[in-house]
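Researcher: Watch the backbone:
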Amino acid sequence: MSLPHPLLYPLASAAQLAQTPCRADGIPAWLEEDLRAEGCRLIQSAGILLGAPQVVMATAQVLFQRFWYVTSMREFSVSQIAMGALYLASKLEEHIARMRDIINIFDLLLSRLRYSLAHPTAPPESFKYSPMSYYSNEYYTYKDELVIAEMQLLKRLAFNVQVQLPYNTMVNYLNVLGLGRVEGIAQKAWGFLNDALQTPAYAVYPFPTIACAAIHLAAREASVCLPEPPEHEPWWELFDADLEDMEQVCGWVLRLYRRQDEEERELVQNLLLGGRREVRQWLDEVEPKAST
């Protein structure tokens, strides 16, 4: 099977996978993955409130994930890059969101998260949001951060911001396997593709591998046996996928469903809210302990 032009899905190099900029700065792998996932959830929530189509939110999450293979969270704030990725994706997918709307929605989401951390036992409906003034210093700070984030995404990704999503490919694969009409399989696989956006999968593996991993997870959950071709070779080889790569994608997706420790979750949320300053402060506190 001939694959599309490689520019359609630029992937991280072996060196970037072995040592991401975040890990080079001392951020543990589990924390980097959790912050990536939290940033993607922020993009998804903001996109839903904006009324953006799923393709915009998916493209933004892929760009967001790619960014952290060339830059450390010690240099840029997760929430700011998430905001810039959503704004850039809205332009790429020709569903442009107003800068002011993105800023207000991110401020709303971050304010709500800040409130929930300060009042862990308070019911969600007790949160009251007060929009910032259009002429406030806070608004112009947000605006500067959004412009810088978009510029840095373009610069550090070398303007290679094409994104190829695997949704249509996954549906075609199901039809080839004779599972296109099996109840629930396509919906489950579609859901796993959405969940995989919160992982580094789209920045590491080509989309045929991600599509096969989603089918594999959906078939297991629905207890459906995947058919074998006449040659009795593994079905994924029909689509130029590798089992080890598929299992890595499946592992990342399944990790999202684990029960997260409360302390760990609070740390991730505080680092998300505090941005690069909070990340630097945390690293400065952790490094002396590690050395002893």
